[in-house]
TrEMBL record:
Belongs to the short-chain dehydrogenases/reductases (SDR) family. This is SDR family oxidoreductase. One of its GO terms (biological process) is monocarboxylic acid metabolic process. GO terms for molecular function: oxidoreductase activity. It comes from Amycolatopsis acidiphila. Keywords: Oxidoreductase. InterPro entries: NAD(P)-bd_dom_sf (IPR036291), Sc_DH/Rdtase_CS (IPR020904), SDR (IPR050259), SDR_fam (IPR002347).
Length: 251
């Protein structure tokens, strides 16, 4: 594998989760120095240890925690906003708590980390911001309306910032996965009570039916897309949504 991130520093949020860790691992394999952020300090410490990375634990929906994460990087070339994890429910079943949790975890984390990163990147005249969005924003999946409100904000932030910062050598793009298989999700389904397991299985069957390839994507497939748009060779790509979706929506 090439070392296209040699000498580059990348901050990856949500680094303790399966997708964030997979992205961080791919960037490290290509030579990046990493700083990881996540709210789960135990899992984050373990993830950082595996990759030889710095880490800062904190709630990135809070500005001070986001600034502490960005401030831990000696320099900043790449920011991957992967922190997320919405509460997926039929819309009427959401509570005030789940509404706020979904917006906080996805939109506010992205906003605060990006706002902290932009002055650093602007001063350097170089930066790659990659936001992890969601295919469901485009194709309207079942039970995803509130999640889409949060991720749709991330998609909108991407295009606005891409135009605003293009002259500063900073690109801003979204990588939007569809259904991605992870061992953690499989384990959660396996451990669920029978009625919940049947419900989740039917729900995933509905999602599978929207994907022409007939399968979930992999973390490695998401990480590959992120690594490309985060690289110097993607200099002329900005304001785009790169869908990793098995064909579930097409242009």
């Amino acid at each position: 594998m090439t070392a296209r991130f040699a000498g580059r520093v990348a901050v990856v949020t949500g680094g303790a989760g399966p997708i964030g860790f997979g992205i961080a691992q791919r960037l490290a394999e290509e030579g990046a120095t990493l700083v990881l952020g996540d709210v789960d300090e135990g899992r984050l410490s373990a993830a950082a240890g595996k990759l030889g990375a710095k880490y800062v634990a904190g709630d990135l929906s809070r500005r001070a925690d986001a600034e502490a994460l960005i401030g831990a990087a000696d320099r900043l070339d790449v920011l991957v906003n992967c922190a997320g994890g919405g509460v997926i429910l039929p819309t009427p079943e959401h509570t005030e708590e789940t509404l706020h949790a979904t917006i906080d975890r996805n939109l506010w984390t992205t906003l605060h980390c990006t706002l902290a990163a932009l002055p650093v990147m602007t001063a350097a005249g170089y930066g790659r911001i990659v936001n992890i969005g969601a295919e469901s924003v485009r194709n309207g999946l079942y039970r995803h309306a509130v999640y889409n409100a949060a991720k749709g904000g991330v998609h909108g932030l991407t295009t606005g910032l891409a135009r605003e910062y293009a002259a500063h050598g900073i690109t801003v793009n979204t990588v939007a996965p569809a259904w991605i298989a992870t061992p953690e999700a499989d384990a959660r389904v396996a451990a669920a009570p029978e009625a919940e397991r049947r419900d989740l299985t039917g729900f995933f069957d509905q999602i599978r039916a929207t994907i022409p390839m007939g399968r979930p994507g992999t973390v490695a497939e998401v990480a590959a897309a992120v690594a490309f748009v985060a690289s110097a060779e993607a200099a002329y790509i900005t304001g785009q949504t790169i869908s990793v979706n098995g064909g579930s929506s097409m242009l």
